Amino acid sequence: MQRTRVNEMIRISEIRVIDENGEQLGVLPTTEAKQIARDKGLDLVEIAPNVRPPVCKIMDYGKYKYEQSKKARESKKKQHVTHLKEIKLRPKIEEHDLGFKMRHAEKFLKEHDKVKFTVMFRGREMEHLDRGFSLLKQVQERFEDIAVLEKEPVRVGRIISMILGPRSERKGG
Fold it and tell me: What pTM was computed for the model?
């Protein structure tokens, strides 16, 4: 992040100055602008360094920094980090157990997290891989109104897995 230049850090010869009330004072020599700020007991803060001449405002720098950090905290509150939650299933899972796990998955999806469903096989269960794929198909159909398929069911060794992500409201459904 670029540091804001204040008072003596501003080295350019001429700057566009805005006073504490938001009114433009025009393009002034930097020394004169610093003196005006000092006389008012305030700081000269560079708010637009990339334009020519740079725009500087006469204000209380401490208050400005506080407002900036407050805005940053507010925007951070509105962000959501998406997590990948995993639900482990077995090919011979009972209906009640499946329902229990589906309620957890639904909660995760409504909280805008992705859910990875894995079906694990042991021993002779490997002969019935079709049960695993049909189970994942059933799960996918159950959540088609609130989730989108992000990764097709894929077999890796003794595990079949797929990933569902939450439907975004912006796409209209």
Answer: 0.57
